[in-house]
């Protein structure tokens, strides 16, 4: 733990600032002189002092009380400075120094070093057959304790802090936290809207700003939706937990490809759904699970989709029955 000793002036009257002390003493002498003048005038007027009357010197007593209060405040301030000096704020100008220079992943204990001081994570040491790529010296046998202790003492905030995450963790936990963080930003799926926020904030945003462009649904119940051939998506908004689902529509060679995604964090559990396309007595059924996304970039999936032939479109419209199942 790094400790800073903070120096400073005690009360403004130390040897580093004699002028203030001199002004305070001069002021005391002036007050004493003024008090003596008042006493002489009272003696001339009354000749004899009144019984039980005692002359006080308030200015001097006030100065003593002020001094005691300053000493008390100075003592408390010194204790606070000692507490604050136990913590040090630092800025890492190059965050890459906390990553393994070989695999570029965040360094995690254990960390090894070669005889020349080059460091590498344990995974890379094994993949390199314990041969340092910088100097060809053996690596993977000597722990770099200094860097390990440094990493354990550093606490960093989540990259999603501005979206609501208040967690702080060690550098080695950065990757695992980012995979589980529920505050990862998601981009609004409405065309032309650049709103970016956590999935919950995004659902509130969409329900207020783009209410006419979404369809509300209830889990485990079928809803009917209709889209034309070239319509790229339909947004579904859950009525209870305010999650956004997107029905994607891609034009392919023999018809249209349909699948459903969910806007949310990476660690969210996949949701199962059913899609039915009916036409002239025939029914096409897709039973799959949603893919969690943070940005509706329009990429077509490689699996988990339903290709609907062109003859299922009536007057350029595709009618679907969709059921999203509860968790």
From TrEMBL:
Keyword check for Zinc-finger: yes
Known catalytic reactions:
S-ubiquitinyl-[E2 ubiquitin-conjugating enzyme]-L-cysteine + [acceptor protein]-L-lysine = [E2 ubiquitin-conjugating enzyme]-L-cysteine + N(6)-ubiquitinyl-[acceptor protein]-L-lysine
Name the domain of life: Eukaryota
In which pathway does this enzyme or protein participate? Answer: Protein modification; protein ubiquitination
EC main group:
transferase
Q: What is its EC number?
A: 2.3.2.27
- TM region(s), chain numbering: none
The answer to keyword Transferase applying to this record is: yes
Q: Which residues form the SIAH-type domain?
A: 153-211
**Which PROSITE patterns does the entry link to?**
ZF_SIAH
Q: Which UniProt keywords apply?
A: Acyltransferase, Metal-binding, Transferase, Ubl conjugation pathway, Zinc, Zinc-finger
List the Pfam families: Sina_RING (PF21362), Sina_ZnF (PF21361)
| Record region (Disordered) | 1-58
GO BP of this protein: protein ubiquitination
- From the UniProt record, which GO molecular function terms apply? ubiquitin protein ligase activity; zinc ion binding
Where would one find coiled-coil regions in this protein? none
Q: Which CDD domains match?
A: RING-HC_SIAHs
Name the family the entry cites: Belongs to the SINA (Seven in absentia) family.
Chain's role: E3 ubiquitin-protein ligase that mediates ubiquitination and subsequent proteasomal degradation of target proteins. E3 ubiquitin ligases accept ubiquitin from an E2 ubiquitin-conjugating enzyme in the form of a thioester and then directly transfers the ubiquitin to targeted substrates. It probably triggers the ubiquitin-mediated degradation of different substrates.
Record's protein name: RING-type E3 ubiquitin transferase
Taxonomic lineage per UniProt? Eukaryota, Viridiplantae, Streptophyta, Embryophyta, Tracheophyta
């Amino acid at each position: 733990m790094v400790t800073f000793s903070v120096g400073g002036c005690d009360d403004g009257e130390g040897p580093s600032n004699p002028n203030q002390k001199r002004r305070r003493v001069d002021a005391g002498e002036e007050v004493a002189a003024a008090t003596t003048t008042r006493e002489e005038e009272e003696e001339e007027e009354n000749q004899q002092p009144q019984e039980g009357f005692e002359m006080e010197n308030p200015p001097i007593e006030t100065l003593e009380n002020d001094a005691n209060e300053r000493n008390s405040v100075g003592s408390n301030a010194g204790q606070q400075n000692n507490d604050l000096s136990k913590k040090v704020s630092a800025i890492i100008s190059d965050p890459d120094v906390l990553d393994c220079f070989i695999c570029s992943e965040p360094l995690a204990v254990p960390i090894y070093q070669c005889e020349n001081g080059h460091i590498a994570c344990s995974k890379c040491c094994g993949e390199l057959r314990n041969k340092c790529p910088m100097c060809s010296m053996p690596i993977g046998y000597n722990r770099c304790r200094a860097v390990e202790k440094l990493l354990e003492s550093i606490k960093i905030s989540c990259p999603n802090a501005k979206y609501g995450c208040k967690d702080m963790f060690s550098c080695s936990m950065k990757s695992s936290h980012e995979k589980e963080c529920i505050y990862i930003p998601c981009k609004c799926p409405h065309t032309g809207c650049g709103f970016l926020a956590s999935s919950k904030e995004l659902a509130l945003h969409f329900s207020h700003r783009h209410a006419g462009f979404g369809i509300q649904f209830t889990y485990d119940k079928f809803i009917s939706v209709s889209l034309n051939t070239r319509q790229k998506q339909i947004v579904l908004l859950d009525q209870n937990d305010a999650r956004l689902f997107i029905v994607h529509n891609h034009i392919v060679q023999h018809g249209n490809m349909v699948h459903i995604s969910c806007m949310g964090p990476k660690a969210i559990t996949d949701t199962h759904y059913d899609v039915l396309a009916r036409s002239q007595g025939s029914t096409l059924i897709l039973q799959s699970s949603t893919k969690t996304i943070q940005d509706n970039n329009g990429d077509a999936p490689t699996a988990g989709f339903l290709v609907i032939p062109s003859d299922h479109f009536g007057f350029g419209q595709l009618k679907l029955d969709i059921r999203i199942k509860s968790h």
